[in-house]
Amino acid sequence: MYLSPELNVKKLYELYLEKYEKDMFDIYGLKDKKHLFRPKVTYDFYFRYFKANFNISFGSPRSDTCKTCDEYENKLKLPLPDEELNQIKTSKQLHVSRAQVFFDALKEKTEEAKNNPEVEVLCFDHQQNAPLPKVPSGDAFYLRQLWVFNFCIYSAKTGISHFYMYDETTGKKTPNETISFLDHYLKNIMSKDVKTLYIFSDNCAAQNKNGSLVQYLFTLAQTKQFQSILHRYPEPGHSFLPCDRSFGVVEKALRKMERIFTPQEYMTHYGKCSRNFEVVPVEQNMIFDFVNYLKPNFKKTVINQHRQKFAISKYKLILYEANSGIQCSESCNVPIYSTFNIQCSTLDTNTAPNQLYKEKLPLKKVKYDNVMVLANQYVPKNDLSYYEKLTFAQGNTGSDVEMTNDEETIE
Ligand SMILES: [Zn+2]
After folding, report:
1. For residue 192, how many other CB atoms are within 10 A of its CB?
2. Residue 237 CA, ligand 1 centroid: distance in Å
């Protein structure tokens, strides 16, 4: 289980004191009163009890270290026969070099995009959800909060990160949102001179590595909007992208802000963090049902002439070109492509996809109640109108997005 990244054991301990040993909490941290500090439960005891009894971590499951690398390191410390150790060493080197290929390609293509008007490199990803209302109180950690989402599209040509920002009542984090924002970006923001597009994203199946995105990119290539699109996926565990650097800048600035009450406030802050950040406020009329729009044109199960089944989670490279099926490679260093014909009818490109949501999305009742408790207690009158417009769903339906980010596809 993961708790908010804003928490740690010390903070939890302070919350405990605040709630159950109020007199101790008041002198906690005051140096000159240290000799008066004799709480019933000491920090040492609290810490040991917490580690021994709860399997809880803080922050996002996406960490800076790589699980696979850690596992190899641990195995190499075992008293194993030399032969086995050498094998592990080789596997580890292979894993690390595969990771490096991705970053070398990103660097190389970035240079190309800067010098050639017909080439662009895009990276995209969702940031960790931001809470509303954001308040410095312990209550916020026990109650459900409303989330603000940020989908970043980074251009290597301009160095600009566009932040598509919206709250939980405007949209979700499904392939439809990813494709809608990408489509918006390609039509409205990217230079029309671009003919060759390189995409670098992580392996998150829900957003960046799924059949609908493949169908969308395939359609772009077939309708000759691009000569070619090459989508590269990193080695799992090594997916730090320029978007993550932008998120780091934003999160550092946010740590200094104790109170944020509306999505607009987040948008203003994010936009101010750097002159390379542009915020695109998302409205529901920007989110389309691409999934159902694309689906009828494509085969349900895809098998190529060598009877291989199309298995997206395995691929490190997917190449889209006009007048060709999609070309997929499991190896990233020297690509070995297998071609798959995914299309089953002539592409119907005259119609447009329908708007996905017709009205603001209701929250789950429990979430709505929690959010309103916080809003009524902490949000100033001027900003309350945002919360008064929230709605909840009857029964057990409605939006109740969890804190944690979606994990990468396990391969
Ligand atoms: Zn690794």
Report:
1. 8
2. 5
Instruction: Tell me the pTM.
Output: 0.83
CA–centroid distance, 166 to ligand 1, in Å, is: 33
Å from CA of 6 to ligand 1 middle? 26
Cα of 38 from ligand 1 centre, angstroms:
45
Residue with tokens 């086995």: 84
Tokens for 364, please give them.
């789950």
Residue type for position 22: K
Listed range (42-56, 219-233, 378-392) with the worst mean pLDDT: 42-56
Q: What does the pLDDT read at residue 165?
A: 98
Helix (H) or strand (E) holding 279: strand 277-281
Tokens of 378: 């902490």
Rounded (10°) CA dihedral 100, 332, 200, 230: 150
Q: What pLDDT score does 260 carry?
A: 96
Q: How far is the CA of 97 from the centre of ligand 1 (A)?
A: 10
Top-confidence residue, 128 or 2: 128
Q: What is residue 213's predicted lDDT score, i.e. its pLDDT?
A: 96
In this predicted model, what pLDDT tens digit does every residue of 244-298 receive, in sequence order?
A: 999 999 999 998 898 999 999 999 999 999 999 999 999 999 999 999 999 988 8
CA distances from 200 to 22, 263, 407 (A): 51, 28, 17
Contacts 24+ apart (CB under 8 A), 187-195: 189/153, 189/162, 190/120, 190/122, 190/155, 191/117, 191/120, 191/157, 193/117, 193/118, 194/117, 194/118, 194/119, 194/120, 194/226, 195/118, 195/119, 195/226, 195/227, 195/228
Ligand 1 centroid from CA 250, angstroms: 26
What's the CA-to-centroid distance between 203 and ligand 1, angstroms? 14
Say which amino acid occupies 342.
I
Ligand 1 mean position, distance from CA 207 (Å): 22
Rg (CA), the chain: 24
Helix (H, G, I), strand (E, B) or coil at 396: coil
Could you report the per-residue pLDDT of 52-110, keeping only the tens digit for each?
A: 777 666 654 444 678 889 999 999 999 999 999 999 999 999 999 999 999 999 999 99
